[in-house]
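Title: Prediction job returns without error message
Component: structure pipeline
Severity: low
Priority: P3
Assignee: unassigned

Description:
Job completed but the reporter wants confirmation the result is attached to the right record. Sequence as submitted:
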Amino acid sequence: MVYKKYIKRNGKLYGPYIYESKRVNGKVISEYHGSEEPKKEKGVKINKFNYKKIFLFFIGAILLAVLIYFFIFNINKNSFSGNVIASINSFYEQGKILDGVLEFSLNEGELIPASSKIIFENSNISQEFNLRDFLDSPISEGKYYVKDVELEGEGEGYGLEGERVIYPELSFTLKIYQTIDDDSEENTEVLEENPTEENISTPITGNSIKSSGRFLSSFFRTTGSVISMELKLDIQGKVSKDNEFVYELNEGEEAELELKSVYYGEENLPDKTIELKKEDNKIIITTEYSFVEKGYGEDYLGSKNKKLTLNLEDFNLSVEEGDLIVKVIYEDDEIFSLNTVIKEGEKISDELIEIPLEEEKEPILNEEVEIKQEEPILIRDIGKSLTSKEREAILNKFGESSIQVVNSEKFKDRIIINYALGEYYIEYSYDSDLDKNTLDSLMEEDRIKFLKDIAKSLVQEENLAEPINDFKDNYTF
């Protein structure tokens, strides 16, 4: 699968970077193809092969071996598999434990194993932890699944149950009667003393047929003749929403549904669950019966998502300036990874999103569209994501104020949002192809980042104005 990777660092979006996910020797790896995707021309199919590499591939066996070694063992493995959205927000100070939060969200229907490992790589040092020891989230049970990641097995995990509609196959019994004309003027009911059952040789695929050979009832016609109804067959039929049941009546035959004979498995359903109608000499039975089933897997994917948050302080990480790679893996499969750069005194604010190229939409060119202004966002509504110190600094400065959306517009393929709180102001941009739930989630994260940055600035200002008691003596003249 080919997909684009974007990196959002300190409010600035970098990318796209083109990757291709594939499975090699049982492991999912990602191959980097550069930052430019091939241009498409109308009516022209793009050949994705690099002819130069193909030519070199056939030069000789030695070069072939080198290429195989390169592609198998030296591929950039900093991939971000699936459609998971992850972000890291922290502030690095040399000699201190790394604090902040790591957040990632799962789509409805996705479940990652509770026994997954989280790995931090920095300065050639790798530290591995059990995910369940640090993630404070309810545990579910089901089949492990993350889109575009080949997870196997089932059990305890973290995720959000999805839903799918099931249209099951129902069973029922259809009674077939034979009408018999009796010219006698008396209304008589005839019952055989020794009724016997025998199998009818006429085949009806998927249904069981029985014959009773007895009269059920008789009644007068207006002409004075008597009509008798003989129960001829019991047919065990099956029907579902997409597969109706059809039975062709012979001359003189009638049909009716046996009472309380409709079942789904062992569950008895009301007779009205299925509908019986007669068209010409055919009996047609249909149903619209369905139920909703919850679970995990591709069939249960939905538009909702669940955010999982990890506090970096809990890991007690001592890191150095340079690359910091965060991975979540299960056995040999990488669920996602996030690569960021940490520097002394700089805020870490990286976000990674993948968008499959197959799902790309045509870009909007030279178009500027006004987006409906949002209502102000109260600080108390998002203050739960702040530390107690950050919340105190914000409330002391602004009280029960709100973050104002001073501008929101769609320009080309980006959504631009500007926030303001007092004298503080910031601008964020988002991909216009994102669905509403994902966009809302990213906007909420950015508002939290905005407040955290302001709180950090306020705390630093307080620390600059420290009282000095040495000069508090009284002086006389």
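Comment from assignee: result matches the submitted record. The mean pLDDT is 74.
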